[in-house]
Amino acid sequence: MQNQMYGKRDIYSSRRRNQQRAKLEKKLKKVIDGSINCSLYMDSVRITGQVDTWQKVVKAGQIAAKTNFKEVINDIFFKENSQNIQFNERLASTARYENWDIAIIGGGIIGCAIARELSKYDLKICIIEKEYDVAIHASSRNDGMIHPGIASPLGSLKSKMNIRGNALYEKVSKELEVPINWCGSSILFKTTSSKLIWPFFWIKAKLIGLKGLEYMPKKSVYQREPHLSEGVKWGVLCKRAGVTSPYKMTVAYAENAIENGVTLKLNAKVIGMKNINKDATLINKGEISEIYVQDQTEKYTIKPKIVINAAGVYSDLVAEMAGDRFFSIHPRKGEVVLFDKKKADLVNGILGFMGDRSSKHTKGGGIIKTYEGNILVGPNALETFERDNYETNRATIDEMLRLKLPQIKGLDMKDDITFFTGIRASTYKEDFIIEASRQLKNMIHVAGIQSPGFASAPAIAERVEKICDKMYLELTSQKMVQDVNFNPNRKAIPNFKEMSLEERNKMIALRPEYGEIICRCEEISKGEILDALHTPIKVDTIDGVKRRVRAGMGRCQGGFCMPLVMEIIHSELGVSMDQITKKSGESKIAAHFTKDRGENK
Amino acid sequence: MNYYDSIVIGGGPAGLAAAYQLKIEGAKVLILEREARLGGILKQCIHDGFGLIEFNKVLTGPEYADYFVNAVKSTKIDIMTKTFVTDLIKTEKGFHVTIVNSQTGVQILSCKTIILATGCRERTNKQLFITGDRPAGVYTAGTAQYMVNIEGLLPCNRCLILGSGDIGLIMARRLTLEGAKVIGVYEAKDTASGLARNVQQCLLDFEIPIYYRKTVIEVHGRERLKSVTVADVDEQMKVIYGTEKEVVCDGLILSVGLIPENEIAEKLSVAIDPKTNGPIVDGQMMTCIPGVFSCGNALKVFDLVDHVTANARIAAKSALKYIQKESETDG
């Protein structure tokens, strides 16, 4: 049965796989807990059992990941993750249904980039996003770094995608009008003996085709970063590293996709799927015939030709709904702290410190000057069973700042303006999964996209386009047809702050609202906020405006401009002042009108 | 003719008093205000208690502001509202002030002196490192005051106030009068930061408790605030772990300090005092850059607006002397 199921794809014999499984099980029983069992699922290994802490669950998964199995399905139970496994709400077909060529689950940078790539073709595409806007989760909760690609393991998919994504971003940046600051990154070392590893960097760069790598003697390091504290002995400069705004990039991808015909379904949650062949195997493949969607008003059915799973930290749960869960996501939280632009001059690019990582699973970004000029410290790395709990924690932030602030002379805790958390969608193998499902004819999984996922997004979209092309042909016996009307160019909202005096005058003559500054800290004009309210994606929240034009992201954190932004939303969109929300749902800014105001209403 | 003896940046109480003084003594003055109306933060301070020293009367904020707005307007001082200063440059003869405005676009104005009267901003929960979620319902007292008094919006039904600065105390009363429940004022120090009269009139008279040596360390609620975690602090204001308690509320109002706003001053490399966060000035309110003066809450945070007015007059008189001296040397 096993052999038949895996056919030629199986590089290990059934006997060898079983030996591996038994060996792993023995080890896990000894090291983690006696209750742990291992079984085989396709070419992944599934581990089950019961332990008392999440740390043990993760540890077991990490040990299992060291084997040669393709992926690790971690179903070890600990008291608080029980809900995570029992989520699957299978439904009968609803009355209303829609036909789509491509249904993309997830409106993060990956889902949006894929949608935009596929919008080149004459296809009916929709993005199904459970939140009220795109870029709500990991895509707006990262440092916006476009990694050079030197950090990912040699031969990994991460490495390939990163190198290619980095190269593609120059064009993407121009087409979508989201500027990138190619500021370069420095990997810094505090011991002289570590200089011995420079040749390995050089060789690795050659192997992966990374250009612009330079050895920096101590003097060059301090010339480049004069505010760096003492103790750095040498460094590696990667010129091909850059920073941009991750949420603006995601929004831009989504907008361009929509302009090219893609439908973005917001507040739409996938609650189940129908596989027409429940007993699907690698040879006798299944197919997703229906996706059940719940939005704010109704349940309905999507009948897709192809389903793309780009659901971030939920990608394994989406795979499970499809009956194709061959991996597990173990969410890894990262907190970052942003500092006042006043201190922008203290850092010139991206700084990573070797031998100073809070965990081996961070890219060691450490200290970054963001595109806008805020110094960003972090992220740290904390394993968590909660997929979307974005709470920050004082103790872990303090610990991170204690380690990282002393690296820069003149950077002080009191210069902070905000902090937040992101959650990485990591698999136990810690590599990307970008592939056609092996037991479903019409599903593509894009999972485990953690750092450098943002940097890889254009390449991931390109790869999915290829997979999709082949899959479409197999399913329909037709090739995907190029859409002659595809327009790769998207117009950004004019950025008043970055204009010259002449440009500003021209703009104000044309649109006087551009001469009225609403957000004083970030110098955002009324014109920009008005424009944000009239982009292809509906924006009617304070945070929605923030993600597009940064009003409220400065040092006063919206203290002055939030009521003014509310007034603009009110007068422009007709939303009553007492109903305006920060981030949709229950997040109303005000409880209600005051007594007088209420009576007069 | 875009040349002024003095350009006053900020049309709040400090800017108005300074501009008026300069004008009546014969200087050519321009007031630049980023908001639509003059008066600064006084516009939203509808409680009374202003003007005891200046007018020997008890006035509300808007009344106090109106006195100066009318005075300034009667003297035909040039005023530009909804005008934002984007740059300041030192020139041989004085300064260039770059402004942006929807009517006139970008303009560069010249002047001999600059009066910085840019006021202050409030410290935020993020600067206190209050961690947890990022829900709606966490506002600084000034923002809450704007919502209630200008927009007619009640920010919350049941709130806790962190910090006992004057605006926090005023807002405790204001929110109570508007029907919200104020659970209490939490203060990390062992005395109130605000005026004694405000503690009496805004808290005690309304039976709102004030708790000392307590602070808020976390906020909870993914969309709207649901609760906060409070904890005791020691003499060094360090949190004493083990004393945490969760308080259910849908609002957290912060009154934890004001920071003079000097970002525009920094464009001229005006030296800033790290203690006050305002420019370092001589006895006559002149900063380290000759011709640049600072007054009001942009210089240091004052308790009473009457003192701001007096301080602005000193700056104006000092600027006048400077203008006269410069004119003489110009011959």
UniProtKB/TrEMBL annotation, chain A:
A Pfam family the protein falls into: Fer2_BFD
InterPro entries found in the cross-reference section: BFD-like_2Fe2S-bd_dom (IPR007419), BFD-like_2Fe2S-bd_dom_sf (IPR041854), FAD-dep_OxRdtase (IPR006076), FAD/NAD-bd_sf (IPR036188), G3P_Oxidase/Oxidoreductase (IPR052745)
Signal peptide range: none
Domain FAD dependent oxidoreductase: 101-464
SUPFAM superfamilies tied to this protein: FAD/NAD(P)-binding domain
Domain BFD-like [2Fe-2S]-binding intervals: 517-570
Protein name: FAD-dependent oxidoreductase
Organism for this UniProt entry: Fusibacter bizertensis
Automatic annotation (TrEMBL), chain B:
Classification via Pfam families: Pyr_redox_2
InterPro entries assigned to the protein according to its UniProt record, in alphabetical order: FAD/NAD-bd_sf, FAD/NAD-binding_dom, Metab_Enz_Cyan_OpOx_G3PDH
The FAD/NAD(P)-binding domain, residue ranges: 4-306
Keyword annotations: Oxidoreductase
Family annotation (Gene3D superfamilies): FAD/NAD(P)-binding domain
Protein name per Swiss-Prot or TrEMBL: FAD-dependent oxidoreductase
